Amino acid sequence: MMRLAVRTLRFRKGGFIATFVAVVFGTAIVMACGGLMETGIRSNVSPERLAAAPIVVTGKQSHLRPGAEDATALPERVGVPTDLVSKISSVEGVSDAIGDLTFPASILGSSGLTVAEGHNWSSAALAPYKLTSGRAPTAGQVVSTTAGTKVGDRVTYVVDGSPETFRVSGIAKGPAGHAFFSDHEARQLAGNPARFADVGVLLAPGTDVDAVKDRIKAIDGGITVSTGIDRGLAEHPGTETQRVALISIAGSFGGIAAMTMMFVVASTLALSAQHREREFALLRGIGTTPGQVRRMILGESMLVSIPAVLVGVVPGVFLGRFLFDQLGSHGVASPVVEFSQGVIPFAAGAGAAILAAIGAALIAARKSAKIKPVEALVEASLQRKWFGWIRLLFGLLFLGGGLALLIVTAAVMTGPLAGATAGPSVLCWAIGVALLGPFWTKAVLAIWRWPVQLLTRVNGRLAIRNVTARSVAMSAAVMPVMLAVGISTANLYMQTTQMDAASEAFTRDLKADTVLVSEAGMAPALVDQVRTVPGVASASAFVRSTGVIDEPRNAPFDEDGAPLLGVDAQGKDGTAPVQLTSGSLTDLTGSTVALPDYVAGKMDRRVGSDITMTLGDGTSVKLRVVATFAAERGYESIILPAKLVAAHTTDGLTKQILVRSAPGADVQPALAKVAAAHPGVQVADRDTLVAANAEDLQTQAWVNYMLVGMLIAYTAVSVVNTLVSTTLRRRREFALQRLTGSTRMQVLRMLTTESTLVTLAGITLGTLVALACLLPFSAAVSASAIPTGPLWIFLVIIGAAAVLTFGSTLVPATAALRHSPPQPTHAD
């Protein structure tokens, strides 16, 4: 049978090319996702500034809440207490332990601010940096690594929002973007001199690194000890959070891509087998056993899929690198991480593709191998059977899964969490509808046939009779269109709805109309200066971070932690984006907190009660509740004093100041003058603040747009494969129509009407699938069950579906009708 399978390939090029293309692109997508997964798991970052230290000690960048199963990643640099350095130095085998103070020190030049980091000079030995000229810094001096700088130059650095000028005492050779101050001055400039950013450990010659690593771990459970390639993570503490995000994206999208690939490959092979029912009937009629038919179909799929997998590796490598670069440039993945795509992603992509081909081949062969020869000949002439009981069972199971996820999304989930169940529900609905495609196709065509017939007349009646007689086969053309429309519409409008709901929740109580922003941070005294500007009714520092509520333990936040907003103490007419229900923000100083009503209710806390929190840098604080406020469900944030939040961030800076103007006052010109006196400070409007609040959502939306776009493109391959194959199979039918008097244009008009019906059926079913996901999702994330977003997105989706459908039908049909049909001959 393998010999027969090889010979068959020459005469079934169309179907095998379709399968080949589907497997190639499926392999590439799954392999690319595998590369992202491997990159996230490895997170290899080559050490630069700490390269001379065999061991690097950092703070533990996660916190396990009491009673929780999963730890929460801490977004701020935790650091190492300074008193641990002496303990590390005393460990056997350690020759020296050098603490590194790291703080923002942007360079102020003629072209503006250049982001840089400041360090204590003693930590320069960890790179190692070597002086090429000059000497070590003392008070008021700096060792520079900036190209073009000379000894004796005076350079202005912006530290903690204030500019200060230093004289260059030396030039060091090493990684650029760093400035070294004297140890005493670095402790004054650092935001938290009680903690080192990290500690580099130097070892005595011949010392066993792993043994020393174990001894240092035993000193304190709140530290992380890194060796080898892991030392690079200490230089980029945000990499750990991005690592989790990258693994999550790769895992979720890779799973969806693998399922989509299996569906596309299975539908392509099933369609190819369906088109060969007469051939299989003849084989069964001449005595071929069911096992031989199965082996032949399985052999054909292997002969096509194995070369396709090998070809798919090439675009898979480039696609994985492209996706990683895009994620890095948009802040989702750390650009300093080395992209890794080894044997495991290749095995995942190849294995998924081959398993999909084997499974699809076995499913496709099942029907053709088991039916009796006479029944096969009848079935081959016109397929009437809708589906078998196995397909019915799985179709109902997927529809049941979609219904269960719909109920959970609408009744249980709130806010951003609703996407966790709404996203998978799209696939459940789509696959369930596809498995029961003939039923849904016939139901939808029964609705559309009458208006189409009225508009198209004779050609419409002929097309409708064709579609009615071939409704089972027609479902194979409708389902890919449904899949493309349903998945793309649901995923894109989920993002637009989520972003609109988040913006609405933030802006509903936002009283600020102007905001001062600075990437280099602002001096603490600037807030008081802004308050004295004529026309300013209220001003407050505004700082963001993430924390964990430890006590009470029933806090309604998951392992991602609780969003923290830091504001200054203020009256009821202040700029804080909250609507108070009890207490007052005038007491929001020191160790205090304001809680959303829902959070306070779940924890049974009221004004005067206490809670215990772990802030973004791992510091545990006990806070007294001074106020509660109304908040949109799912978008709750914890309000803390701005100074408290800023002191426990990585850079310790305030980067935004909220300003509310008095009625009728125009304060922007006066604020612009104030900002001009502070390097890097800019005045922006309310929209900038709203955009900054939705920055994470915008990044997530962009990632989903890109990944969904890939799935849409891959699904489009299925649409083209299916429709082109189906159209070319009907060449005998077209020739018969030509012989009975139909012109080429009449046949094309009939196919245009059929394509219209296919497009309308696919768009209708796809829209219903999308609405089954979007309606409960919208109800969970916003006050309305109607999804929000621009109408043009849906118009583009259905327009693309129509173009694909009409193009994939009319282009091959035009080619098939180019030649006149053969004329019958009559014997004399």
From TrEMBL:
Belongs to the ABC-4 integral membrane protein family. It comes from Kribbella pittospori. This is ABC transporter permease. It is found in: Cell membrane. The chain crosses the membrane at residues 244-271, 302-324, 344-365, 386-414, 426-450, 471-494, 702-724, 757-779, 791-811. The keyword Cell membrane applies. PROSITE patterns: PROKAR_LIPOPROTEIN (PS51257). The keyword Protein biosynthesis does not apply. Keywords: Cell membrane, Membrane, Transmembrane, Transmembrane helix. It is a multi-pass membrane protein. One of its GO terms (cellular component) is plasma membrane. Residues 252-373, 706-821 form the ABC3 transporter permease C-terminal domain. It holds the Pfam family FtsX. One of its GO terms (molecular function) is transmembrane transporter activity.
